[in-house]
Specification:
2 copies of one chain form a homodimer. With 224 residues, the first copy, chain A, is of the alpha+beta class. The first copy, chain A, is built from 7 helices and 12 strands. Chain A has helices at residues 24-28, 44-55, 57-62, 75-88, 109-113, 157-170, 195-201, and strands spanning 14-17, 20-23, 32-37, 65-71, 102-104, 117-122, 128-130, 132-137, 143-149, 187-188, 207-208, 219-221.
């Protein structure tokens, strides 16, 4: 069945990549994972996207996130195109390589299985290309978050990093992050947590906003 | 089948909302649509999110986008909670109403059909709540873009607006938008378009970046 939902176990597929044959779960190990697909090598938007992803890769590494890209192109194209991406980033493409592998899904098996195709974008044989899909996978190998943009819309990798920060700030903790949250901003206390418990759990303080309903659920606490 | 893919026809469901019974396609008319779900009324993150969505609603209207929210709560809760959202936005909740309707999916029928549930977040009866799902629907009633965040991670409605701007800037046009694009930035020329055609189609100029591959696909043109 194409399409993965939140909480689904992420398949442990085997794939050919620019760093050799991998099995996804072994590649990820205990890390978080960001798997992102692009329509085609040697195309303009994809080059800007993978360039941005490469520039942000140290930020993802710091957060214990392994990145892996995917398209339906062959390994040879991935390798040569990588030099263009590095040159776009103004880096010496002769002596560097991309900081993450790219999967060569030339038979479209993963693209179909993971629901990554964009029916509006076809190659010269009339077959659909991969869309701009992002899956964030937790250390438990379950899907934590996904986005699905069409070929015409380049993604915002800073938003993906922000979302990873939120996932990590809240995983296993009894807090959540409000709209537009950034690291360092206050986080929110669960509506169901009794006042005394919140006071004990969040010694830095709990701030409650008064609301017409009189209910005391809009509660902030500094991020710990 | 839960989970909608890009290009799928968006179901013309009937629903109970804070503005009465609607059929989705009739509600949308010729507009674009943004359907977004939240876990629960009277909860902290959802209040900040719907507050942010309400503040941005004139921006969405300007772009001919109709917004509609959804959760598994009942109509009565939606109505009373709306006053809290307006108060959170520092607006007079006595004489105003939210600028978009909220669907009351109290039987979870739409949440299940559209793959919106978050298995990690359950109500007191152990049933899963709705995740933070966003569907952007085109005037052709097909899915253009989707995001799926868990209950713990508040969304970024500015990114949703940016994505809508890209969808609209590229719909029916032979351009696409690079990573992190904002309205007014240059757009990109399709890799497959011959040089002469690009020169004729984009009289404001086409700028090509030199790349190690020698291929001439990284081409920008001012947004028209």
């Amino acid at each position: 069945m194409p399409g993965l939902l939140l909480g689904d176990a992420f398949p442990n597929f085997e794939a050919e990549t620019t760093i050799g044959q991998i099995k996804l779960h072994e590649f990820l190990g205990d890390s978080w994972g960001v798997l992102f697909s692009h329509p085609r090598d040697y195309t303009p938007v994809c080059t800007t996207e993978l360039g941005r992803a490469a520039r942000l890769s140290t930020e993802f590494s710091k957060r214990n996130v392994k990145m892996i890209a995917l398209s339906i192109d062959c390994l040879e194209d991935h390798h040569s195109w990588s030099k263009d991406i590095l040159a776009y980033n103004c880096e010496d493409s002769a002596c560097r390589s991309l900081p993450f592998p790219i999967i060569a899904d030339s038979k479209r098996e993963l693209a179909v299985a993971l629901g990554m195709l964009d029916p509006d974008e076809k190659d010269k044989d009339g077959l659909p290309l991969t869309a701009r899909c992002v899956f964030v996978i937790g250390p438990d190998k379950r899907l934590k978050l996904s986005i699905l943009y069409p070929a015409t819309t380049g993604r915002n990798f800073d938003e993906i990093l922000r979302a990873v920060d939120s996932l990590q700030a809240t995983a296993g903790k009894r807090v959540s992050t409000p709209a537009d949250w950034k690291p360092g901003d206050c986080v929110m206390v669960p509506a169901s947590m009794p006042e005394e418990e919140a006071a004990a759990l969040f010694p830095a303080g709990v701030y409650t906003k008064d609301l017409p309903s009189g209910k005391k659920y809009l509660r902030y606490t500094p991020q710990q």
